[in-house]
Each structure stands twice: as structure tokens, then as C-alpha cells.
Amino acid sequence: MTLDLTPDQLLSTTRAVRKRLDLERPVPRSLIEECVDLATQAPTGRNRQRWHFIVVTDPDRRRLVGDIFRRALTTGGGQPPTERDLPRMFAYPGSMERTSDGLRHLHDNIHRVPAFVVPAIEGRTEGASVLDQSMTWGSILPAVWSFMLAARARGLGTVWTTAQGPLEKELADALGVPYDEVMLTAFIPLAFTIGTDFKPARRIPREQVLHWDRW
């Protein structure tokens, strides 16, 4: 059964869910399979369909993977915000505080999340040209977003995290993924949501992001 949402509502209310994940309710395998079936209808470069979805629900495996997630968060990594990023990040009072609070909640409760989804793609992009990078990421990102939209339509919450990045090799080993051949692209907690009344996020004005005919 899916929620009664218009396409615009679905697109504008599929949020990064952290604190409102239901940590007590298992997610049926059939729902996850439906979401994956829809995800693999996404566009894929040259129809190569190199995507994979590793779903973790076993309690012992979730504890192992959750420990990797926690340790990965403490490693830092990634480029720091630029001077142009900061005004956008703090455009609306309280937004970053809520994000940080949600991340702490997820860190503390990751072992209780009923399912993890780790999307992956064949091929690695270290040192690749912009063309090759865009072809690779352009084939997995639409599929993952389709998965997240399908999950939202079924009352499930997701949040795209890159926590796998700093410890990707360790996570790949834990999941039996051939690291040299397959890239783990995200780490997505998955659960039913506590309530389904999500609202559009407050974003910076269109004028700051829309460029017509030239930059």
C-alpha cells in the first residue's frame, strides 16, 4: 500500500529522515524488493546496468556494519564548507542545528535501524576523468533517488549518507564486496517513519541557483 501523494508532493517531501525512523518495526523484504524494482527503472549510461543494492537486515551483520558507520563518522573527511557554502547552510535559523541533532541521534541508534541499504556500482572512479566520473555517478544516483522516492511512497524513511567513504574498504570486506571492482556509493538507513506528515524544506531562493543562457 502506498501513501496518497501527488507527484509534486512526493518529490518535495522525500526528506532525509534521521530522528523519525521507527526503530522498532521491521521492514518487510517485499517492500524493499519493490523499491529496488522501481530503482532499476532509472536511466543508466549505455544501458550497462552496473548498479547493485546490498541490503542488510540480519541483526549480527547490522551490529557489525553499524560499528563501521559510527567509526567512519568520527574520521572526518571531505572538503570543509567554503565561504559561499556557509550563507546557504545557515540561511534559515535552526536548520543546521536540527541536522546536527539528527546526525547525533542516528549515530547513537544506528544499531537499532531495521535495515541498511548500500548502493554500489561496478567500476571505481579514483583518478578517472570528469567524463568517466559523470557516467558512473550518473548511472547510480538516479537509481538511488528512485529507490528513496519509492520508499517514501510506501511510508519508509531514508537518508543518503556518505559515512561509508572513509572506511569503504572495511565495509566492503564486511559485506563480501570485491572492493577493487565495485564502489560503495552511499550508506542508507531504512525504516518506517514515525508519522508520514513531512513538509517541503526551506531552500534558498530560485534566483540564487537558476542560470539562464549563461552563468
UniProtKB/TrEMBL annotation:
The keyword Oxidoreductase belongs to this UniProt entry's keyword annotation: yes
Cited InterPro entries: Nitroreductase, Nitroreductase-like
Highest taxon in the source lineage: Bacteria
Keywords assigned by UniProt, alphabetized: Oxidoreductase
Family matches, as CDD domains: Nitro_FMN_reductase
Pfam family, one: Nitroreductase
Domain called Nitroreductase: residue spans: 14-184
Family that this chain belongs to: Belongs to the nitroreductase family.
Protein name in the entry: Nitroreductase family protein
Organism: Streptomyces galilaeus
